[in-house]
Amino acid sequence: MEIIPDRSVTHYTLADDNGWDFVIDVHAVPPGGSSKLNWISVVKEPPLFRQKPDDDFWYTYLQDSRTVYCSFRGYKDLGKQSKGLFDLIKQQNPDKLVIDMRLNGGGDYNVGLKHLVHPIRDLPDTNRKDTCSYSSALVRSPLPCLILHISVTRRTLSWWDTRSERNPTATRKPAR
Fold first, then answer.
1. What is the CATH number of the domain that holds 69?
2. Best CA proximity match to 160, nearest among 97, 103, 118
3. 19-34 pLDDT tens trace
């Protein structure tokens, strides 16, 4: 695009609080070099879906909202990993279960069915006259119940195909 003459450096002229101009040079980070930088976060604690970036599958109980949150980014050891999730659900008996798939790059659909979809469907407090709606998939059943929310993107929308699970009606809008 040739917006700047040299892709490795650009010069910005800025003004300080007193109106004095000064120039700073901004150097490009070479490919692969961003992992060596000490980034400064703009928030004290990143949102849940940005936490534990090296973990493909992790979960936690959020006491204030009585919610079990699960970040499902990958399929590595899903059988073993999901066992801990279901132990936490049994222990805490939450009102809500959030499966966050926004950073999931894909994998074996049948493994997901075996270790997540079917076990969630078979929990005693879910899948009673389900209806799906809201942003992504929100499965509700009569009280007392577990409300299931699946956070998806356009890349991960097809994974949780609620139409194939018993009788829910699927009206899904991907999260942005």
1. 3.30.750
2. 118
3. 999 999 999 888 888 7
